[in-house]
Amino acid sequence: MTGTATAGNLLRLSALDALELMRTGALEAAALTDAYLSQIAKNDKIVAAYLRLTTAEARLKAAANDAAPAADRAPLAGLPTAVKDVLVTEGVITTCASKMLEAYNPIYTATSILKLAEAGIVMLGKTNMDEFAMGSSTENSAFGPTRNPWDPERVPGGSSGGSAAAVAAGEAIWALGSDTGGSIRQPAAFCGVVGLKPTYGSISRYGLVAFASSFDQVGPITKTVRDAALMLQYLVGKDPLDTTSVEHPDVINLPQDKDLDGLSVGIVSELVGEGIDAGVKKVFDQAVKKMEAAGAAVCETSLPHVEYALPAYYILAPAEASANLARFDGVRYGFRAVGALADITEMYELTRSQGFGDEVKRRIMLGTYALSSGYYEAYYGQAQKVRTLVVEDFERAFDQVDLLISPTSPTTAFRLGEKTGDPLTMYKSDICTIPVNLAGLPGISIPAGLADGLPVGLQLIGPAFSENMLLQAAHSAEAVIGFDAVSPLIERAD
Amino acid sequence: MDFEPVIGLEIHVELSTESKMFCGCRVKFGGEPNARCCPVCMAHPGALPVANEKAIEYLARIGLALNCSIPERSIFHRKNYFYPDLPKGYQISQYDRPFAVDGRLEIVVDDEQLTVGIERVHMEEDTAKNIHAGGGGRIAGAVYSLIDFNRSGTPLVEIVTRPEIHSPQAARTFLNKLKNLLKYLDVSDCNMEEGSLRCDANVSVRPAGSSGLGVKTELKNMNSFKHLEKGLAMEIERQAQLIESGGQVVQQTVHFDFATGEVTPMRSKEFAHDYRYFPEPDLVPLAAGSDFVEKIRAAMPELPDARAARYVNDLGLPAYNSEVLTSSRELSDFFEATLAHFDDARMASNWIMGELLGYINAAGGDLASCRMAPAEMGKLLAMIRSGAVSNAVGKEVFAEMCKTGQTAGEIVAAKGLAQISDEPELAAIAGRVIASNPAQVEQFRAGKERVLGFFVGQVMKETKGRANPQAVNRILKEKLAG
Amino acid sequence: MVSDDDVRYVARLARLKLKSAELDRYSRQLSGIIDHINKIAELDLKDVEPTSHVTRLENVFRADTPWSSVSQEKALLNAPEAEAGAFKVPQILEAGEQ
Ligand SMILES: [Mg+2]
Ligand SMILES: [Zn+2]
């Protein structure tokens, strides 16, 4: 999709291509921003990727970029960016797709947004998501679902469904998402875009509304792997406001064009068997063959405890969430139940039962249950130990291979409403991505092809802080797979 | 039946750091509500805690001073419960891996040396402040409440004793000793009225001589030493009467109302506590390796017992003086500051214990009620020792200095109090006194030597006490013998 | 199996008020999830250390340096109800903790 960078098909430009055109003066930031805003105006009624647009600020910032001499421009100046509504933005309502925060006006801005804003990006608006990032389809939004640009009858995945759909629909050149159990990679796979979840700790979580603090990580959703690397360059770094953040040991490189010679790749055998759709498997197998042909040494690798990852995750993440969401109590900000409230307890109970949606309440109760007196050891304690086993499984695997691969999700995008009645089936949509979060590792999903007309994602997983190797391998794989993932909405727009 | 009370104390100490435990907002008492807050201490979505290093250092000082052992690793937990003064819906505290454990503090009650075991010392954060509107500012009867988050997130150290205290007096002594220790450690201003030192007590009673434990109640809101002692006495009495009349103590919280001096059991919670503690994922473990602990131990301020021993060994003070002087950090600091300007420790200690404590007690306040600077006290003592002012005048000047903060020199000059040691002047006065009291001269010469005291008194009267007594004695003896 | 009473207890702890139809639904759904989760009980993990953090970080602190707080106006910007510079809440019936 990139090699033909001209100002003619702005919606198909990668961020790097657009920067190059703006650097040479062939493209103005204002024109680029306008192209994306027009696409939003045209298609977002259907896609519903955005919860809120910041059109005026975007135009101003783009114009300011154009006014500055090229040499003074910030490194990412003029790139139209979509931001998941889970990152707080001072002065721009931030809702987490919850009625609880419908009118919440943040008094500060997330570190990740500040860093990108300093680097010059133009924020187009805030994108839809599953409420408080809890879900795999973006159907759990208090403000209605987002639709998949490849097929509006289908979900974009979740919880960063709005961000992934925006990039796939040509409604942003790239986007920010967050990933707790697959919330960047799974929607990226469903929408045919690239989604990177970096190593836990490499990007500040300050200002990322917490779902499960020991899993949450911000990351890029982009059209290309090189764009993901580019955005990552400006996101990483230790933040004094986030104790769990660290300085990335490497300077993040832009991947180079080269083959996969010398790279050993392990297929996670537990993630390619039962439960994986035949169409997904087929695309995955073809991608593996192409990688082998490009020089990768591929073998089967086992993560023996990976079957316990999902149950452990559905104890630990809701447990953390049950505490993280206790602050939504109607006292300092956000929704408060109206009417005569007899006392503080009634205020809490009505506020929280009216302000939270079903899935959020379900997870709060699940987490509360797992932590409650008498159950802690059997659930929370045991799950923490399973987490240790999963971490050790990955360590053993990385003694043998450089990278692990699997499908990103066992299925392609499912139909709206198809899984909403059965939470457990929905949870299983993240079976391939969750183990990576348990171990805090970097994982990336790249488009690998289509199954029945819907995108399939290939997930690559690396050791902690191996982003450079992971991105390089993903870039080479992207090239040898050679799948030009452009959604129908963009082709129609040309 | 005779009952023995069993008391355990839970003390919360607000640390006097510059900034809060997990954010940079200032730690200060009072002021405009909600003016020292930020996203972190108001628990805005996405905000994260970062631990204050100084607070951890203070915590370590307390743990070490209470003779605790410091485990290699301790971690923060979330303690989950809903209350409007708790913005996150959980308090960051420590649970089964506290910072310091198994310490002790020795106290003396009625000349008996007692050891109170310290179960744990841990780090946590303070809550916001609820102001109850209507109902006289009390929770019962209030129609609504107002919340001020200025205090939210102030570093709080919790000290939990073992239930090894057996009288209200011992509890008071313990708290007093602890407070003094904390002041030596320079970690808190320990102001009970402002809530920077707060004490709850677990109390039960058992038949004297038995070793089991009765049902305990938790006594809250004792915001002074007097209230602690009184509240405990009343609660012990209440429990004893209840048992004697065939009733049973119910495990509950009991509120001490310092306005009425009564203890009232509080409405018990509808739900048992289920705090769902779990490790705080936003913070990393504290690894207090031996280096860490030794560094803090080396930098520890001198503690009262060590200071008292130094006074005995190096300054040659009696044990009693040393103990009195070190019983308060301020007093002991004052003493040492005086010594920087005056080298007779014994004399300085006598004047502090006699005159200074006398002044403070009479003023009904603390050392702050004395306006005399230690350096000036040193200068006064030097004047007394050299004979520039008499002992008696010195006492008068001392009191005046305490009251006004003027220097000894100013007072002596203004009031003309300098001692008269001038021989001819004294001889002239002595001559006049002898001449005008012939009867007494007769008596003296007849061998009644104690009449000398009468003559000395007369000379002193003439000089308004400024005459050098040694010189007066000598001159009178010479003249009367002649 | 998660009983109605379990759900009621947990909802109360989490300050969620459930209607009786919701109670049924949540007991059923949570039972299904818990059944699946119980899979981890089959592992013997006596000798396994728990992991609460994947980072190996320790002793990360900030210096005790005050920063500028937000203004009172900003603090109260999102307050559902405020009075006299403070957040206003309905009557509190139970004593707090420390
Ligand atoms: Mg406490
Ligand atoms: Zn603050």
Q: What order do the helices and strands come in, and which of them pair?
A:
The complex is a heterotrimer of chains A (494), B (482) and C (98).
Chain A: H1 15-24, H2 29-47, E1 50-53, H3 55-67, E2 80-84, H4 111-118, E3 122-127, H5 161-168, E4 174-179, H6 185-191, E5 194-197, E6 217-222, H7 225-235, E7 264-268, H8 278-293, E8 297-301, H9 309-324, H10 344-355, H11 358-371, H12 377-400, E9 403-407, H13 423-427, H14 434-439, E10 443-451, E11 454-461, H15 467-481, H16 488-493
Helix pairs in contact in A: 2-3, 5-6, 7-15, 8-15, 9-11, 9-12
Chain B: E1 3-14, E2 51-52, H1 53-65, E3 73-74, E4 77-80, E5 90-93, E6 100-109, E7 112-125, E8 129-133, E9 144-148, E10 155-161, H2 168-185, E11 197-207, E12 217-222, H3 225-244, E13 253-257, E14 262-265, E15 278-279, E16 286-287, H4 290-298, H5 304-315, H6 319-326, H7 329-339, H8 345-363, H9 374-386, H10 391-404, H11 408-415, H12 423-435, H13 438-445, H14 451-462, H15 469-481
Parallel strand pairs in B: 12-13
Antiparallel strand pairs in B: 1-10, 1-11, 3-16, 4-5, 4-15, 6-7, 7-10, 8-9, 11-12, 13-14
Chain C: H1 4-13, H2 20-37, E1 61-62, H3 72-75, E2 82-83, E3 86-90
Antiparallel strand pairs in C: 2-3
Helix pairs in contact in C: 1-2
The structure holds magnesium ion and zinc ion.
